[in-house]
């Protein structure tokens, strides 16, 4: 995935470098698939920058001009230009390391390693087959895949019709910067890639930091909703008997249009039964240093560890809630890490402690044996720093995907609790008719339901980031299920409420 600044919906007279790179990436994808034997398969690239058809037409015109120039340079090397060297640079810089990593992450997939020489031999053949088409209600072009039994190679430029309706066969590159403030619209537009046998390593998405941030929020809201569905199913309830909740967004991202929300109301729901983890960090001075000092002081206050695990990880038990509250009152969290807001967490814990809940805490300081830098002394303990790949990195922000290693979340369970959480996980897996190997590890939602309402879990992950003097202090808080928990904003609807609209 490539992240670029948003591009205004204007009439283009030239293409931004990000879109030129995306076109080159698509040429490489088509050539690489041919080198793997997928010669007669469809290949598609999506370009969606605006819903305005006039702008789409201008974009299509400039893209065609740029692509025709690239193709001429590839067909006639002596005519000048550096298109082939640009492709080689992109291949070495992006495709080689990405393919290697994907093969490691997906060993079960049939992803054949490729040499540049294999790909180079197919580049001209692939480029000669690529067409540029404008797909919208005003254009005459169409995606007639059925009329191309030998495979269609197309750069499709359009708007709503393209992003929300048509199926793009063999979609491999998406250049997508059209924004919307509605969950449902973004999810419809976000159907970029499905299962891609033999070319999962070739998929590329070019988009904006803002869209990545919004999709991360939607993914979290969707994950919470799935957990609710599992809980409903495990209790034998139906949608008519249970009200579904969808987490709202703090900065005005809407679940759907106002006229579609008539059957909903804003309610409040809490941290109960959830895990809050930092995935975004402010890296401008002095925040990293100040947070490091706050966490170091907290760890030092814990005294001698209860136990030491693999890789020098330290565990503490029976930690006073007051220390945890003070930690979160002193720590600074990024506004973009909205689910792990230190102020909200400290207020929540204080509220529960007043109700004689969350009074007893377990703490884990995670250490890595695979750290590529020298260990760091934190609170008197030597710790191997972790690495987490940045999804968005700017001068002021560092954002990652998942922070938590799932096995850390059950560190405070006894054998009986672990077995019960695993059995509930397996029961849900069987009742849903899932296929494949039965789970051998408990899911987070059932781990949190085994923990007593008095017991909280704090996981601390010191992260090394090149160029930053002190490690970033990532954390996750695993909250037990508490039916009397204080609440945060959600939108609520139900099947019964929807039915009432039409009575």
Automatic annotation (TrEMBL):
Stretches assigned to the Putative endonuclease Z1 domain: 18-252
A Pfam match: Z1
UniProt xrefs under InterPro entries: Put_endonuclease_Z1-dom
Protein name: Putative endonuclease Z1 domain-containing protein
Source organism of the structure: Thalassospira indica
């Amino acid at each position: 995935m490539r992240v670029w600044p948003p591009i205004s919906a204007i009439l283009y007279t030239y293409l931004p470098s990000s879109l030129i790179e995306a076109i080159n990436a698509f040429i490489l994808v088509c050539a690489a698939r041919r080198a793997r034997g997928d010669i007669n398969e469809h290949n598609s690239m999506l370009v969606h920058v605006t819903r305005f058809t006039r702008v789409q037409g201008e974009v299509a015109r400039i893209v065609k001009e740029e692509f025709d120039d690239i193709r001429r340079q590839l067909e006639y090397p002596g005519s000048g230009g550096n298109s082939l060297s640009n492709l080689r640079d992109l291949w070495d810089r992006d495709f080689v390391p990405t393919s290697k990593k994907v093969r490691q992450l997906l060993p079960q997939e049939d992803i054949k390693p490729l040499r540049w020489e294999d790909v180079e031999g197919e580049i001209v053949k692939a480029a000669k087959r690529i067409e540029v088409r404008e797909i919208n209600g005003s254009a005459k072009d169409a995606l007639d895949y059925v009329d191309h039994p030998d495979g269609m190679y197309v750069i499709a430029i359009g708007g709503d019709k393209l992003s929300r309706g048509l199926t793009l066969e063999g979609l491999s590159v998406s250049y997508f910067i059209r924004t919307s403030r509605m969950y449902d619209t973004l999810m419809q537009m976000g159907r970029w890639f499905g299962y891609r046998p033999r070319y999962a390593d070739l998929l590329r998405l070019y988009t904006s930091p803002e869209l990545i941030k919004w999709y991360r929020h939607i993914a979290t809201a969707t994950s919470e909703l799935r957990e609710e569905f599992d809980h409903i199913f495990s209790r034998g309830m139906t949608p008519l008997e249970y009200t579904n909740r969808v987490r709202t967004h703090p900065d005005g991202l809407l679940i759907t249009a106002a006229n579609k929300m008539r059957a909903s109301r804003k309610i409040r729901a809490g941290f109960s039964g959830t895990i809050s983890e930092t995935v975004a960090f402010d890296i401008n001075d002095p925040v990293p240093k100040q947070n490091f000092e706050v966490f170091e002081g907290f760890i030092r206050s814990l005294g001698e560890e209860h136990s030491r695990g693999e890789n020098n990880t330290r565990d503490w038990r029976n930690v006073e809630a007051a220390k945890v509250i003070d930690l979160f009152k002193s720590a600074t969290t990024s506004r973009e890490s909205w689910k792990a807001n230190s102020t909200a967490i400290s207020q929540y814990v204080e509220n529960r402690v007043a109700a004689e809940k969350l009074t007893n805490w377990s703490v884990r300081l995670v250490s890595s044996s695979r750290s590529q830098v020298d260990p760091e002394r934190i609170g008197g303990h030597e710790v191997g720093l972790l690495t987490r790949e940045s999804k968005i990195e700017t001068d002021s922000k560092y954002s990652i995907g998942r922070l938590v290693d799932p096995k850390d979340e059950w560190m405070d369970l006894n054998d009986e609790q672990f077995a019960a959480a695993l059995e509930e996980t397996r029961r849900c897996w069987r009742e849903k008719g899932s296929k494949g190997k039965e789970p051998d590890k408990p899911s987070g939602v059932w781990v949190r339901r085994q923990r007593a309402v008095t017991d909280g879990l704090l996981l601390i992950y010191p992260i090394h980031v090149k160029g930053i003097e002190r490690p970033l202090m990532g954390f996750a808080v695993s909250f037990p299920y508490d039916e009397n928990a204080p609440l945060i904003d959600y939108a609520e609807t139900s099947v019964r409420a929807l039915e009432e609209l039409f009575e």
